[in-house]
Write a structure and sequence with these properties.
The protein is of the alpha+beta class. It is built from seven helices and 16 strands. It has two domains: 134 residues, no CATH class; 177 residues, no CATH class. It comes from Butyrivibrio fibrisolvens DSM 3071.
């Protein structure tokens, strides 16, 4: 089937418009690929899954009401780790995004349930299998997406800027696209994945080990902090080192993420990095993986002092593990050196972009 964004499909007895598509690979099944199409049938959002390898086709709809209610009538038929290979149209992912998934079907082998565990939460959906002859392309109509509006706006804006001759000065006013530590860690050769810790509110933290080059007897937390800060081009909210001591635990806070850099209790020659969305920290007070009691205490006091107040406004509908916190607090969040270092890296990155764009003097 030649389905693409803009296609109008007939599925059983109703029509649906394809407004987006995502092609995944399953890293736990030989990188097998399949495509999911985001559909609008009237005002109803549906997802059509097309797996030409296993000749499986299904239609599903988001249904978070099944959370915690997958009973014995459902049996597991597939699971793995899906990574976005490519996408188009109106979808909220980009290549490289990933999630763990589990698929279930009922005793009739006609109905389906699926669970996808993303970094920012868990999604549930309910659906049914289709026969290939129940899906047909009956037309095409270009989909206007938010990206189209965005592109048109900036094309017009760019033309105005060129006419006025203000490109160089305008560039300083453009917003910087936030860099995610989690993506840097997963793609950098300097880190290897160790494990994940499950928390409350369907959140999880990933743990990596630093495996890059160090110029001392072993890697230090300072080596790793600088590598991460450079990797995200200095886009930090605050960076704090415990007691302002070399090779001590370091916390990096960005607008969306919380990163802890520390030595595991059982091997001081290693450096671990725990990364999560801030919602994980807000909802859970789990100890970092293989951390000492002193590292755990400092981590909790730092999160509470640096981020809890603002996160309580962002995640106010989610119960917090820190609502009755009575431990130590830290008053010197952002301890000077690393905040200055981040600022220097950030400015260097901006200057580099300006120079390469031809907009400089």
């Amino acid at each position: 089937m030649n389905i693409k964004v803009g296609s109008i499909l007939k599925i059983k007895n109703y029509e649906a418009h394809v407004i987006g598509s995502i092609t995944y690979k399953n890293t736990e099944d030989g990188n097998k690929t399949w495509t999911e199409y985001r559909l609008l049938a009237g005002k109803v959002e549906l997802w059509l899954s097309v797996d030409d390898v296993y000749k499986e086709y299904s239609l599903s709809r988001a249904d978070n009401s099944i959370r915690g209610k997958i009973g014995p009538k459902w049996h597991e038929v597939d699971k793995g780790h899906q990574v976005v290979k490519r996408c188009s149209g109106d979808v909220d992912v980009e290549p490289g995004d990933s999630a763990d998934f589990v698929e279930f079907e009922d005793a009739t082998e006609e109905k389906t349930l699926s669970v996808e565990i993303w970094d920012d939460g868990t999604e549930y959906s309910r659906g049914e299998y289709l026969d290939l002859d129940e899906i047909s392309v009956i037309g095409f109509e270009k989909v206007k997406t938010k990206k189209d509006d965005f592109d048109v706006f900036f094309i017009r804006l760019f033309m105005v800027i060129m006419v006025l001759g203000f490109l160089a000065s305008f560039e300083d006013c453009l917003p910087t696209i936030p860099k995610r530590i989690s993506k840097y860690l997963s793609k950098s050769d300097n880190y290897s994945y160790v494990t994940s810790i499950t928390g409350n509110a369907d959140q999880k933290a990933d743990v990596y080990q630093y495996t890059g080059i160090s110029y001392s007897t072993g890697p230090t937390t300072d080596d790793v902090a600088k590598d991460i800060i450079n990797g995200i081009e200095g886009q930090t909210q605050s960076v704090t080192q415990e007691d302002d001591m070399a090779d001590a635990t370091i916390a990096i806070v960005t607008d969306k993420e919380y990163c802890l850099i520390y030595h595991p209790e059982d091997d001081a020659s290693l450096v671990y990095v725990q990364i999560s969305n801030r919602k994980y920290n807000y909802a859970s007070d789990n100890s970092p993986y293989k951390s000492s009691s002193s590292t755990t205490r400092w981590y909790r006091s730092h999160y509470y002092s640096s981020s809890y107040s603002s996160d309580s406004s962002t995640y106010k509908s989610t119960p917090s593990a820190y609502s009755s916190y009575s431990g130590d607090t830290i008053h010197d969040i952002g301890n000077g050196y690393y905040d200055s270092y981040s600022s220097s890296v950030r400015q260097s990155s901006i200057n580099s972009r300006k120079s390469s764009s031809g907009g400089g003097k």
